[in-house]
Amino acid sequence: DVKAYCDELKLSWKDTRWSVMADRWTDMKNKTLVNFLVYCPIGTMFLKSINLSDTPKRLWMFCVRFFIKLYKKLGLRMTCNLSLIMQQIKTC
Questions:
Q1: Cα dihedral value 26, 37, 62, 80, nearest 10
Q2: What is the pLDDT of residues 11-30, one digit of tens each?
Q3: What is the pTM of this model?
């Protein structure tokens, strides 16, 4: 069951190291999409996909704000290097 798997992953985030990952890509209709995922030793979980076709110039700031909101929402300690992640997104 997918929900049970995701619930297990979420529970493990408080006790294990984890990383938020983002992947920017363009689909066949030229839409700019960003997928957000969380990786931990137990597995990887998809969080959200966002269409940023209308805001490519603001992609950098959008991602920074999204990561900060995500950390606050999940109540997790920051265990990853946010600036390194954002550099990777910016260079895509």
A1: -130
A2: 888 787 777 888 888 899 98
A3: 0.66
Sketch the domain layout of the chain as residue ranges: 2-91
Tell me the torsion sign for CA atoms 27, 10, 14, 77: positive
Query: 39-64, pLDDT tens digit by residue?
Result: 888 899 998 888 887 775 666 677 77
- How far does Cα 27 stand from its chain's mean position? 19
CA dist., res. 71 & res. 75, Å (int): 6
Q: CA-CA distance, 53 to 75, in Å (whole number)? A: 30
| Residue type, position 58, single letter | R
Rounded Cα gap, residues 40 and 16, in angstroms: 7
59 membership: H or E segment, kind and range: helix 59-74
As a whole number of angstroms, the distance between CA 23 and CA 89 comes to 7
List C-alpha distances in Å: 83 to 2, 6, 50, 89.
31, 27, 20, 10
